[in-house]
Amino acid sequence: MLIIPIGIAASPPLLEDSTRRGYFFPFPLNLEQTDLSLTYRSDLSCLLVLEGLEDHMELILPPLDGESSLSESFSPSSLPDFPVSFISIQDWEGSQVSFSLSTSNSTQKNQEGDNHQTILSNEKELEDDYFLYLWDEGNNILIFDFKNYEVQDKYFKRLAFFMEKPGYRGTLMTDEEIEGLHGWNAHDYSAEGLVSFYNLAREEDFPLNREELDLRQILLNKGIILFDGKEYLTGEGAIVSITRETSPTLRQRFITHESLHGLFFTDEEFREEIRSYWMGLPENYREIWRFFMVNNAYDPSDEVLMYNEMLGYTLQLHRKEVAGYFQWRFNRIKTLKPENTEYIDRITPYLPEVMLMIYDQLEYLVSRRYPYSDGIFED
């Protein structure tokens, strides 16, 4: 993968006036063969401008606090495919931001990605907030493995309410408004949803936290979202997350669940197959599932969310777990909300049979496209 570190000391330094005005390369630079290192200071996000003889590209750089260094990686798909003759950094008013630059021959190759077994077995000490992986099933699906739930919430809790929580969807909530409320233990987001979130934050001048800005830069670097100078646009890919605070059994379950959503977001034909399956279910089966979703803090008015979550909740399990798991979940609803006792008692006799039927049929749809079997994505 081509690496462009941002905030690493450059050597040798450029002349002072060239850092103020930008830098012309004596010969056009092929970024497919070159590592580029920049050092800059900016309290606000700014634009890295890459210009060729006939083309140009702009990439957003995050703000720096003036003391900490920051490293970012840009994949080849997010960099220009034309030779670059001039580089500058500008603020949003078009003024130049001072920077220094160095180049070296690129020796790194594109990452082929990691499988679930590699991710779950990684026992290296986590010094930063997360490990970030590219899942080897393709479709540009990134998997965050966070240090704990607290850190994960800083990145994704506001997104969870914006994307999926009834009564909150489509609204940017402040930290104070969602304090004490539960997000999710694991997360998944499509490129379209992320674009909606960041565009609304931009339109409303909403103060995102540093972690959400870090996430935005990663998304831009990986081509999951794009920016045309006016608004964010949908790129290719999706993101999912788990944490190291979760037990090993649940880490396996959650990474399967969230990765199924990643495939749903990024594989149009697969998504249509799941939609068609949902529409072909008897209405009383869909009613059972909507009831389950409503009582687990999902918005039932989002039909796509209903069958996407049916996919994740069902196939996150080993087949032998299905009947007991859903009996337990529905009994828990009855305990917490006794007003639902009559409905749950009515469906209980045939609930295991219904959920096993759904499991077997969804497993067939997934396994004929991806290496999935009995709750696990295999190597």
Describe the structure.
The structure is a single chain. With 379 residues, the protein is α+β, with helices and mostly antiparallel strands. It contains 13 helices and 14 strands. It has helices at 16-21, 116-121, 149-163, 175-178, 191-204, 210-221, 248-266, 268-280, 283-294, 303-315, 322-336, 341-347, 351-367, and strands spanning 23-29, 34-40, 46-51, 56-61, 84-90, 99-105, 130-134, 141-146, 187-190, 225-227, 232-234, 238-243, 372-373, 376-377. The radius of gyration is 23 Å and the shape is elongated.
Compose a concise summary of this entry.
This protein has 379 residues and is α+β, with helices and mostly antiparallel strands.
What keywords describe this structure?
379 residues; alpha+beta; 3 domains; 14 strands
What's the total count of β strands?
14
Helix/strand order, N-terminal first: HEEEEEEHEEHHEHHEEEHHHHHHHEE
User: Per the principal axes of the C-alpha atoms, what is the gross shape?
Assistant: elongated
The average pLDDT is 84
Helix content bin: 40-55%
Class computed from helices, strands and strand pairing: alpha+beta
Strand content: 15-25%
Uncertain spans:
1-20, 66-71, 106-111
- What is the alpha-carbon Rg in Å? 23 Å
How large is the count of helical segments? 13
Numbering strands along the chain, what is their spatial order in the largest sheet? Answer: 1-5-3-4
Question: How many separate domains?
Answer: 3
Largest sheet: 4 strands, antiparallel
